[in-house]
Amino acid sequence: MKEIRNLTCIRCPMGCQLTVTLQDGAVQSVTGNTCPRGAEYGRNEVTHPVRTVTSTVRVEGGERPVVAVKTKTEVPKEKIFDVMQALNGLYVKAPVEIGDVLLEDIAGTGSSLVATAEDAAC
Amino acid sequence: MYDVLIIGAGVTGCSIARELSRYRLKAAVLERSSDVCEGTSKANSGIVHAGFDAKPGSLKARFNVAGSEMMADLSKELDFPYENNGSLVLAFSKEDRKTLEALKAQGEENGVKGLAILDGGEVRRREPNVQETAAAALYAPTGSIVDPFLLTVAMAENAAVNGVEFCRNCEVRDVKRAEDGTYRLRTVNTEDMTEQTLETRAVVNAAGVYADVFHNMVSARKLHITARKGEYLLMDRKTKGFVKSTIFQCPSAMGKGVLVTPTAHGNLMIGPTAVDVDDKEAVNTTQGGLETVLQKAGVSAMNLPVGEVITSFAGLRAHEDGGDFVVGECEDAANFFDAAGIESPGLSSAPAIGRSLAGEIAEKLGLPENENFNPVRKGIPCLSAAGLAEREALIREDPAYANIICRCEMVSEAEIVQAIRRPVGARTLDGIKRRVRAGMGRCQAGFCTPGQVEILSRELGKDPGGITKCGTGSGLLTGTTK
Amino acid sequence: MEKTVKIAVIGGGPAGLAAAESAVEQGIRPDDILILERADKLGGILNQCIHNGFGLHTFREELTGPEYADRFIRKVREHQIPYLLKAMVIDISPAGMPGGTGLTVTAMNAEEGLVRVHAKAVILAMGCRERPRGALNLPGYRPAGIYTAGTAQRFVNLEGRMPGHEVVILGSGDIGLIMARRLTLEGARVRVVAELMPYSGGLERNIVQCLDDYGIPLKLSHTVVDIKGRKRVESVTIAEVGPDRRPIPGTEEEYTCDTLLLSCGLIPENELSSALGVQMNGVTKGPVVNESLETSVPGVFACGNVLHVHDLVDYVSEEAAQAGANAARFVLGEIAEDSAAPVTITAQDGVRYTVPSSISLNRMEDRQLIRFRVGNEYRNAGIRIEFDGKEFRTLKKNILAPGSMEQVILQKKDLEGIKGLKNITLRVVQY
């Protein structure tokens, strides 16, 4: 069975309008993209959509109560709230540096949670 | 046993409190809101009317003219913004022109000084933004503008310094006259809902739109107050100079109409509408109301800078059926003193009402003079109004003056801290705003809310979650993330 | 404190940082620069923009706001460019230098008191602010719980505090869309995003990844017609608007909520520039600038959101680098004389404005970037470039939207090819 899906690429602000053609659930083609990242997005989005999760975790002994974090790689879209739950339970100790790995394999996604801001101890 | 309990910490209640503090007594002001100046006093035109509108012989006429005469000296004594900018009532038709003549005659009878009728050319020479259609105007040189928040706060602070207690979040539920002629006031604390009964020799009813409720608890001669809503639009301070004087249109049965005026801080303000409402809490603005204000203000002034509107608001005037102020001892309830039906020109009249009523009460209760009374109150040194050298001195004295929290109005941490620490100090975001103007500017507290919450939380020793905009139920934050 | 420098940079956000770095690369000694920042940290608003999507253009990788800022902060530190934090600039005045040239910047700082910085050139990089409720004339009560999206963002991302649990958002600006997702992730329920215009104010990708991903409805051509709640927001009523943008009676829908977030546009923060006498553009609310991003006051340059509101920080950095380099050339006396009358650039037919708005052929580089925005949504349209009223070229655009900044590049040789060129016009053409 042939299926056509129209998507807006979210990989960069250009927001290319993609057309993904599937045959029996398998991606046949992606058109409308202006870069290879768009094609990758189109393929992923119709088979196993992924997202980077950005949030904060609590800091102890820092200048601020929370520090910004992200998943180092994209995680399956349906795991977003599992990731949130895992990082919500986390407390880290200041100082925190950008790039510090705060948690490995968050919520079983295989991705690690890294700090995206710094917080000096105070 | 109190000597006097004052219900309501609006401009009238605070004026009476301050004037009473000239005497030795035990007095308290009971205010249901979280701060002084939370009702009609916070949402009005900020005008000190010359006094030509009121019918000769009325209390409005008497107190307006007297209050207006007191205001300049009072502004020096209590250090609040006041400017004698003059006012103009515009005439657009022959009929209006007749109204001007009548207003002038009425004003002269009321004792208003310096009234003159100007022709259209002279009006536009003074005020280039007045519409070409204005054929003449009644000029009142004594018309002035005042900061209604700081006028109220200054009187409250001065009353407190001279010994009057201020109980905020204290709602009076019931007033009863005891056998011995004293009064029992049942109050409830609106924060923790605890009840209390206070005993007092005399009561002052300065409860704004609710003054009829309290009056009717003790008197058979019923009052009826209608809340008359007025909506306003306020424009950025960059519009300063658009008009110099306060520009009125000819008055109608519902009031003085829509005016165009500078505020004491250099904003431009237009309004109010006048619509009677059933709900005494309905301080909401309406699309129709705001449109009316814009349309009517456009009749007076051309090229209104409508793109510079920074906020809109509504206030409720306490209109008593009789149409005049009700000031003095209640005929059938001794030692119960009314200051009711205080609609416009209430702000202008407040100093005179306070002086008159306090004198009457003191005489009735036989209160001795307070020889320690200090009439002077100094305001919080204002960074934005200071010159460069003064700023340097302020920062040297208190480095927190260099930490700007509200960037639109250039309000520093030092000023906010003082607003909180003063007598009858600010406890809420709105309280800070009315004392030092943080959040009053073009971004309307968008930028400075987090900073103000932090300072309030530190100064009050409260978690930021407990900081409110205007008291119980108006928490700014609903919890923590995570 | 008194200090004399070559270049004073007002603002330590993305624009100021990139401008300062670029000035150093153009040959200004780091010591001869001073960045004045009002916050206690460099990085500006990026510090609270913890979402990803920054830097694809500049670094070919996707960064979060703080990470993107950090790249520039590191460069400033590497170059040892001096900066003063918690320094609120209160005035910029001309003729501060000995001999009456240059400018004096006055700032306040708790440790230093009044700070006077004399500079040959000033770079304006103060950013922008959000349009508040009052400017939108939204009727209703004025309770707690009405925030601009940026204020909510600060509370959530930097203070770890929730501004509310049940949220209605007015305006589909990018910060509003980003906050719809952010609040949802933190457990709030975002009920609806209402947008007055028939198109979104934000980027399409943010509608997909911030609203669609979480099933949050976007209602175009809708606005808030009532706010209820005396102490805290209790409900918000939205209604559909007609082509005149006025509410259509009978379309009202009341949403129970405790919070109303506003994401209804950004306004360049130009109080200092106006007080200095810089000529302003009524459309952008930013300074009028020439090809060098120099304002009407010689030696005063502008870049980033104080000049015109951008949607991508990458372009802010690019623009700021240009302003920084030009300020450096100005200081070093390398900017050519502006002998001929500059070529004016006119925005017409759907093009709302251009930055710059004039080009001096003497000064222009081989390539000149013209940035602009359109005033409506167009499909299968084009941007026609005209030289003195004659079509020079039309660039085909599949989609043009007010939410996306557009650009065209002009070649110096093309401009020089037209004898006595006076005006360039940009307009939208429909096919």
Write a concise keyword list for the protein shown above.
heterotrimer; A: 122 residues; five-stranded mixed beta sheet; three-stranded antiparallel beta sheet; elongated; B: alpha+beta; five-stranded antiparallel beta sheet; 12 helices; 31% helix
Biggest sheet details of chain B: 8 strands, mixed
Contiguous helical run count of chain B: 12
Strand content of chain B: 15-25%
Number of E-type strands of chain B: 23
| Helix-residue proportion of chain B | 25-40%
In whole angstroms, the N-to-C terminal distance of chain C is: 61 Å
Overall mean pLDDT of chain C stands at 94
Describe this entry's structure for a reader.
The complex is a heterotrimer of chains A (122), B (482) and C (431). Helices cover 17% and strands 38% of the residues of chain A. Chain A is α+β, with helices and mostly antiparallel strands. In chain A, β1 and β2 (17-23) form a beta hairpin. The radius of gyration of chain A is 18 Å and the shape is elongated. The mean pLDDT of chain A is 94. Chain B has helices at 11-20, 59-78, 94-110, 120-126, 148-161, 211-218, 287-300, 346-365, 388-397, 413-421, 429-436, 449-460, and strands at residues 2-7, 27-30, 47-48, 82-83, 87-91, 116-119, 136-140, 144-146, 165-167, 170-177, 183-189, 195-205, 225-235, 246-249, 259-262, 268-271, 275-277, 309-320, 326-330, 333-340, 404-406, 411-412, 479-480. The radius of gyration of chain B is 22 Å and the shape is globular. Chain B starts with a strand and ends with a strand. Chain C has 431 residues and is an alpha/beta fold. Chain C is globular, with a radius of gyration of 23 Å. Chain C starts with a strand and ends with a strand. The A-C interface holds A 7-13, 15, 51-56, 58, 64-66, 68, 70, 77, 80-81, 84, 98, 116-118 and C 47, 50-53, 56-57, 62-64, 66-67, 70, 156-160, 182, 185-186, 203-205, 207-209, 213, 311-312, 404.
List the helices and strands and how they pair.
The complex is a heterotrimer of chains A (about 120), B (about 475) and C (about 425).
Chain A: E1 2-8, E2 17-23, E3 26-31, H1 36-47, E4 50-51, E5 54-60, E6 66-71, E7 75-76, H2 80-88, E8 91-93, E9 101-103, E10 113-115
Parallel strand pairs in A: 5-8
Antiparallel strand pairs in A: 1-2, 2-3, 4-7, 5-6, 6-10, 9-10
Chain B: E1 2-7, H1 11-20, E2 27-30, E3 47-48, H2 59-78, E4 82-83, E5 87-91, H3 94-110, E6 116-119, H4 120-126, E7 136-140, E8 144-146, H5 148-161, E9 165-167, E10 170-177, E11 183-189, E12 195-205, H6 211-218, E13 225-235, E14 246-249, E15 259-262, E16 268-271, E17 275-277, H7 287-300, E18 309-320, E19 326-330, E20 333-340, H8 346-365, H9 388-397, E21 404-406, E22 411-412, H10 413-421, H11 429-436, H12 449-460, E23 479-480
Parallel strand pairs in B: 1-2, 1-12, 2-9, 5-14, 12-20
Antiparallel strand pairs in B: 3-8, 4-8, 5-7, 6-7, 10-11, 11-12, 13-16, 13-17, 13-18, 15-16, 19-20, 21-22
Helix pairs in contact in B: 1-5, 1-8, 2-8, 10-11, 10-12
Chain C: E1 2-10, H1 14-25, E2 33-36, E3 52-54, H2 56-59, E4 63-64, H3 65-78, E5 83-84, E6 88-94, E7 103-109, E8 113-124, E9 128-130, H4 133-136, E10 146-148, H5 149-157, E11 161-162, E12 166-170, H6 174-185, E13 189-195, H7 204-211, E14 218-220, E15 222-228, E16 235-240, E17 253-256, E18 259-262, E19 266-268, H8 271-276, E20 300-302, H9 313-331, E21 343-348, E22 351-355, E23 358-359, E24 367-374, E25 378-387, E26 390-400, E27 406-411, H10 412-416, E28 423-430
Helix pairs in contact in C: 1-3, 1-9, 5-6, 6-7
